[in-house]
Design goal:
Layout (H helix, E strand, L loop, with lengths): L1 H19 L4 H6 L16 H14 L11 H4 L3 H29 L5 H9 L3 H28 L7 H24 L2
Helix pairs in contact: 5-7, 7-8
Main location: membrane
GO molecular function: electron transfer activity; metal ion binding
Organism: Emericellopsis atlantica
């Protein structure tokens, strides 16, 4: 704020010779202050009086609507929320795995790549695919929603019909991407 005041003062002083030619001398001599000053008045209240004042102020505030008033497809299935959910899921799983990988030698766990691959290969195909889908779907959903948000950041696609189509496409590509990563279809 101080730098802006200095800059404004410097600009005004530099422009003064040019402005003086066009403005009457009375206007230049007026020197109207640019800032307003008002005294601050404080009043001491007891805690009970302060609570009463706050209660009265709260009665004048608007009540925030509950999520139940919104359409489900715009809130719960909204890709912005699911981008965050899948991002947190992916990073949480990564932190959990890498943290346990660091602690594995202390507890005698075998989390090396070879032992994990051998254990994973011994699972039935449906369980194997289910685990891969639980990891692949958040990745695909996060990726396609991220691309959608990058396109929306350009300012395109904000029509209601376009949003619904893109939302459906993001969910479809997320599920299909998860299935492709899980089963290689």
């Amino acid at each position: 704020m101080l730098a802006s005041r200095v800059g404004v003062a410097a600009t005004r002083s530099a422009a003064k010779p040019f402005m003086a030619q066009n403005l009457p001398k009375l206007a230049l001599a007026a020197r109207v202050p640019a800032t307003q000053y008002r005294p601050i008045a404080t009043v001491k209240h007891t805690p009970a009086e302060g609570d009463q004042i706050l209660a009265k102020q709260r009665l004048n505030r608007p009540v925030s609507p509950h999520l139940g008033i919104y359409k489900m497809n715009q809130t719960w299935f909204g890709s912005s929320a699911w981008t965050r959910i899948t991002g947190c899921t992916l990073s949480g799983v990564a932190y959990l795995y890498f943290g346990s990988y660091l602690l594995a030698p202390l507890f005698g766990w075998h989390l090396e790549s070879a032992s994990l691959a051998a254990a994973f290969a011994g699972l039935p195909m449906l369980v194997n695919g289910g685990i891969k889908f639980l990891l692949g779907f958040p990745f695909a959903m996060h990726f396609f929603n991220g691309v959608k948000h990058l396109v929306l950041d350009t300012g395109r696609g904000y029509a209601k019909s376009t949003l619904v189509r893109v939302e459906t496409a993001a969910w479809s590509f997320g599920i299909l991407g998860g299935l492709f990563l899980a089963f290689g279809l």
